[in-house]
Write a structure and sequence with these properties.
- By secondary structure, the protein is α+β, with helices and mostly antiparallel strands.
- The protein has 2 helices and 2 strands.
- The longest helix has 22 residues, at 30-51.
- 0% of the residues are buried.
- The model has no long low-confidence stretch (mean pLDDT 96).
Length: 52
């Protein structure tokens, strides 16, 4: 099983309540996991940008 991990920016940790985001990608296929991880990275980048 593959997981997505992302460090929460320091300025957002108090509001977010975590230092690290860890989510299961629910796949055993490396190619599929890579695509899902890229999608999640873009999602969280947008979330962090709007939180600023």
């Amino acid at each position: 099983m593959w997981h997505f991990r992302l460090v929460v920016p320091v300025w957002l940790r108090d509001a977010w309540g975590r230092k690290i985001i860890k989510v299961s990608l629910r796949t055993t296929c490396p190619r599929e996991a890579r695509g899902k991880a890229q999608s999640m990275a873009l999602h969280y980048a947008a979330v962090f940008a709007t939180a600023r």
